[in-house]
Design a protein that fits this description.
The structure is a single chain. This protein is of the alpha/beta class. The protein contains 35 helices and 25 strands. The strands form five sheets. It has an eight-stranded parallel barrel, surrounded by six helices. The protein has a seven-stranded mixed beta sheet with strand order 18-19-20-17-16-22-23, with helices on both faces. A five-stranded parallel beta sheet has the order 13-12-11-14-15, sandwiched between helices. Helix 4 runs antiparallel to helix 5 (about 90-100) and helix 21 packs across helix 24 (about 590-600). The model is unreliable at about 1-5 and about 115-150 (pLDDT under 50).
Length: about 1000
């Protein structure tokens, strides 16, 4: 591969710059001359008029969006139906799903406002379905009369057809051949074909998408006429579809495997002189995407070809920097490039991701007006670079189109783009007024099953109330409103942020600050953290001596003496100390990550997450403690007396923590007990004593009295001695059910005070997946839940129930995704699965795996390197009864179930006696509600993974064999560490009730 990219620098730009600073710069240059604004208004008004007078008897996507707005129950129900119905293979589940969604909207009485056939046909089908299938009248319902059942197949067919009808207006063809035939008969002269599909989860997925792209390129090339670029057709490719691990931490693998594949596809496109556009991905993949693009674009074989390009998202704060980088790359290679400018389609995902990761700011704008303002600025930039760049403006906004036309000062050297099925009236008018302007139709190609994710994204993108498409044809919206400039809407730099979207750091304010994280796709931030970790020196394993029974007794005696001073310290002061500890932990993040990796075997992702969880525990309990242990709570009562309730510490608490979360659970236990006013003797797991020692030093340095917190390292016998001590006022424990029972028996046998045990143990955690679930999402969530942290989480998925109608495809995808995980050194950035904690744990897992290979069907058996490594395994069981105990490692057990036997699945989960975590993947709300109602499980996660409970957001803890409660990181936790005291004072004892006597009428 001849490439000139090695000499070209990598893309660099602030990942999430300040909105205000960007707004100040954009607003300063946004103004145009009065005559320019007047021309823009005239052009935009004419285009809006065309939209409002457009009469398409068949109807289109915009008609559907206006008829079923996402602000209505019908619109939301329709979106969910469209997303899932066509992939449901069995009639029973389809009927349940249709009933569930149609019951959420008033389709029965929906009065159609549109005259378009598409809208009327869909509304009729949905209304008929709602009329025939009333809630509770499906075969699963209580009525189920024969006459109603006879109507169900017709209803099912009508609803599916309504979804297909919608899909046909988003998709040009189900195959590239059908799309080309339809394109040949259309008025549009330029097309960019998009082969639909989710990102690859498996190597087979990536191979299938590659072959799909390759065959499409050849078909497009054969069908193309002899016009030169930019008038020739094109294809859009998605990098995440071509590699199953397209992520920053897998950079070396991506560059070695994906780049040659993309070069091959681009070479095929160049042979036919086609437009070849690399589609935009999420913000965390931008730097990696540009590195791949630079490597491919600089291949020597592409010299003289002007069709290579990429899409740029205007809602990203780095959009202008990407344009500049692309121009510099083209200039360095003396080539031309095509750049498609879009608004962006993953906004909600970007906001949530930044919040979850605790970033300093968002990589995208939080206000739509800022995106629109940035789009115009990027358009201005692109038009100024036409010597090397061919701009492609993708928009359905009449004001944006008019503005670009004004800025272009002519019609040459650029084109507009629209989505197939949208913007037809606008661009028909534009073509009539300015026939020399190029316009390309972005045309999805694929089956209705592949359409689903694309369809929902378009519905969300264009169906929201803030979208131009959603309001342009509404005569009740004044044209002047649609002509308001983004700069006028923003007004000033101080208004650049959305007032209701807090910065990630402020997500939990005013109660507390969110813990600080980084985005691994931000090369600068990641590099800084990795360098800091490498520079840390940590003690060697075994450098902490185990305590003796005498040491344990002495620690409890010292803590008993320290309890008085600590418990009398004001709650406000104790809370401040915990907050100082949290701040210090963030400042010393690199040191603790180094310890977690070197002693605990944590990958960087897991180690960073654990530090953040520990920080969150300290801040959350500090905030809760201020409320609970601050001022006494006054109680109602008769005049002449005061009654207050207050909480106070119990005494000496024993905190016994596990090795799988040696920092987060350790600090969570200790900080809660300290906040409640107790003294603490902490016994960490013997495998991770260095981490615990560092945490205790940090707390002491933050202001915790040395006498109030003692560390007693040792094995299980030391823990048993601590629990049996007569001066113990309480025990908080996380670990196995067996040890929890032993502690409980010891406490019960004591002749001293009855003391509380707060225990969080494990479970045979299950996930239920029905036929409405999206396979790609299931694969992501199952692999994360079962194999992250080498399966060494209390919450990890152990038992997966899949509806048998979809089981084959789901299991194949899950196994394929597991095959792509890298197992190895946790200090290596690219590692997904690190070691298990020790040789004893590995031996137990190896023994179970050997038994499963004899008793179960093997779907996947990974290969592990030498050492304490256990590769992911997937076994299919004939019955859930075959799994009788928690298997604490990367081993997933799968059981199929018939659609009409969900009740048996729930019974088997209930009969296990455990109740820690449960996952549900279903689009049927009634199903979700029924499962939640029946199962008493501590943490239930719907349509997401089932690990990584966030402090204060998903309080964690289970029932039955899974623990005693209350939940860690929840509002009821601290009170369990305290005693309650009621104080009643007779305020009239001094001779009378002065307060009552002085009361005025």
């Amino acid at each position: 591969m001849a490439s000139e990219s090695r000499l070209f620098p990598r893309f660099e730009a602030p990942y999430a710059a300040d909105d205000g600073a960007i707004a100040a710069r954009l607003l300063a240059t946004a103004g145009l001359r009065a005559e320019q604004d007047a021309r823009i208004d005239r052009t935009a008004t004419r285009l809006i008029g065309a939209i409002r007078t457009h009469d398409d008897r068949l109807g289109g996507v915009e008609d559907m969006l206006r008829e079923f707005a996402l602000s209505t129950r019908e619109g939301l129900a329709l979106m969910v139906l469209a997303e899932a119905l066509l992939r449901v293979p069995d009639a029973r589940t389809a009927d349940q799903f249709i009933e569930d969604k149609l019951g959420q909207g008033d389709f029965l009485h929906h009065e159609t406002r549109s005259s378009a056939f598409l809208v009327n046909a869909s509304a009729w089908a949905l209304g008929m379905s709602a009329r025939v299938i009333q809630p509770g009248e499906t075969p699963q319902g209580t009525i189920g009369r024969l006459t109603k059942r006879l109507g169900v197949p017709a209803v099912r067919a009508a609803t599916r057809q309504a979804m297909r009808l919608m899909g046909s207006h988003f998709v040009l063809g189900e195959t590239i051949e059908a799309a080309l035939e339809r394109a040949d008969s259309a008025d549009a002269t330029r097309y960019s074909f998009d082969m639909l599909g989710e990102g690859a989860r498996t190597a087979a997925d990536a191979e299938r998408y590659f072959n799909s792209y390759a065959s499409a390129i050849e078909a497009i090339g054969r069908a193309a006429d002899d016009r030169p670029l930019p008038g020739r057709p094109g294809i859009s490719v998605k990098l995440s579809a071509l590699h199953p691990r397209f992520e920053a931490v897998s950079r070396q693998r991506v560059m070695g495997e994906l780049v040659p594949r993309l070069i091959e596809l681009a070479r095929r496109a160049s042979n036919h002189d086609l437009n070849f556009t690399v589609d935009a991905e999420e913000a965390d993949r931008l730097e990696l995407s540009l590195e791949v693009i630079a490597a491919v674009f600089s291949d020597a074989s592409f010299k003289g070809w002007d069709g290579f390009g990429l899409a740029i998202q205007a809602y990203q704060k780095r959009a202008e920097a990407v344009i500049f980088y692309s121009d510099e790359l083209a200039g360095a290679l003396n080539r031309r490039m095509m750049l498609r400018l879009v608004k962006g389609a993953y906004w909600d995902t970007e906001i949530k991701r930044a919040q979850e990761r605790g970033l300093d700011d968002y990589p995208v704008f939080t206000r739509k007006a800022m995106t629109d303002l940035n789009y115009v600025a990027c358009a201005h930039q692109l038009l100024a670079l036409r010597r090397r760049i061919f701009p492609q403006f993708a928009t359905h906004n009449a004001l944006t189109v008019a503005t670009v036309l004004e800025l272009a000062d002519g019609t040459r050297g650029f084109e507009f783009q629209r989505l197939h099925g949208m913007g037809e009236a606008l661009y028909a008018q534009l073509s009539e007024d300015r026939p020399d302007i190029g316009c390309r139709t972005y045309a999805p190609v694929g089956s209705h099953r592949d359409l689903l994710a694309y369809l929902v994204r378009r519905l969300l993108e264009n169906g929201a109330n803030s979208s131009f498409v959603a309001v342009a044809a509404d005569d009740t919206v004044p044209v002047a409103t649609l002509l308001r400039r983004p700069a006028d809407i923003v007004g000033a730099a101080a208004n650049a942020r959305h007032p209701n979207i807090r910065l990630p750091a402020d997500l939990y304010q005013p109660q507390r600050q969110n813990s600080h994280g980084i985005e691994f796709g931000d090369r600068a931030a990641l590099g800084e953290l990795v360098s800091a970790i490498a520079a840390e020196t940590t003690p060697t394993a075994g450098s902490i001596a185990d305590a003796t029974p005498e040491d344990a007794n002495a620690a409890i005696s010292a803590a008993r003496d320290g309890f008085k001073a600590w418990s009398r310290m004001p709650a406000q002061r104790r809370a401040t100390i915990l907050e100082h500890a949290a701040d210090a932990l963030e400042q010393r993040r690199a040191h603790f990550i180094a310890l977690l990796q070197r002693e605990g075997g944590k990958t960087l992702d897991d180690a960073l997450s654990e530090v953040r969880e520990a920080v969150d525990f300290c801040r959350y309990y500090a905030a809760e403690g201020r409320k609970l242990f601050g001022e006494s709570a006054p109680l109602p009562g008769p005049t002449g007396e005061s009654n207050v309730l207050q909480l106070r510490g119990r005494g000496v608490f024993i905190a016994i923590s596990p090795w799988n979360f040696p920092l987060a659970i350790f600090l969570g236990q200790v900080s809660a007990a300290l906040m409640a006013g107790n003294a603490v003797v902490a016994k960490p797991a013997e495998q991770t004593q260095l981490i615990a020692a560092a945490a205790v030093r940090l707390l002491h340095q933050a202001g915790v009295l040395a006498s109030a917190l003692r560390l007693v390292p040792g094995d299980g016998s030391i823990g048993a001695a601590l629990v049996a001590h007569a001066d113990v006022a309480g025990v908080v424990f996380t670990g196995s059910t067996e040890v929890a029972r032993s502690i409980n028996r010891t406490l019960a046998a004591s002749d001293g005070p009855i003391v509380p045990l707060i225990a969080e143990t494990g479970g045979i955690n299950a996930m239920i997946v029905d036929a409405t679930a999206l396979p790609e999402q299931v694969a992501d969530d199952v692999v994360t839940s079962a194999f992250r942290s080498a399966g060494q989480r209390c919450s990890a998925l152990r038992l997966l129930f899949i509806q048998d109608d979809v089981a084959d495809r789901m299991i194949e995808m899950i196994a394929g995704a597991a095959r792509e995980l890298r197992i190895g050194d946790p200090c290596d950035l690219s590692t997904h699965v690190g070691p298990v904690i020790d040789a004893e744990a590995k031996q137990r897992l190896d023994t179970h795996i050997a038994r499963m290979k004899k008793e179960a069907r093997v779907h996947f058996a990974g290969n592990a390197p030498d050492g304490n490594y256990v590769a992911p395994h997937i076994f299919e069981l004939a019955s859930a009864d075959q799994l009788t105990e928690e298997i604490f490692g990367p081993v997933l057990h799968v059981v199929r179930y018939p659609a009409d036997r969900l009740d048996r699945v729930l019974q088997s989960i209930e009969c296990s006696g455990y109740g820690l975590t449960l996952g549900i993947h279903s689009r049927i709300d009634d199903t979700v509600e029924a499962v939640i109602e029946q199962l008493s499980v501590g943490n239930i996660y719907v349509n997401r993974n089932m690990i990584g409970a966030v402090v204060g957001v998903q309080p964690f803890g289970g029932h039955g064999l899974s623990g005693t409660g209350p939940k860690a990181g929840g509002p009821h936790y601290l009170a369990r560490f305290a005693t309650e005291q009621t104080v009643t004072i007779n305020t009239a004892a001094a001779g009378g009730n002065a307060a009552l006597l002085s009361e005025q009428e």
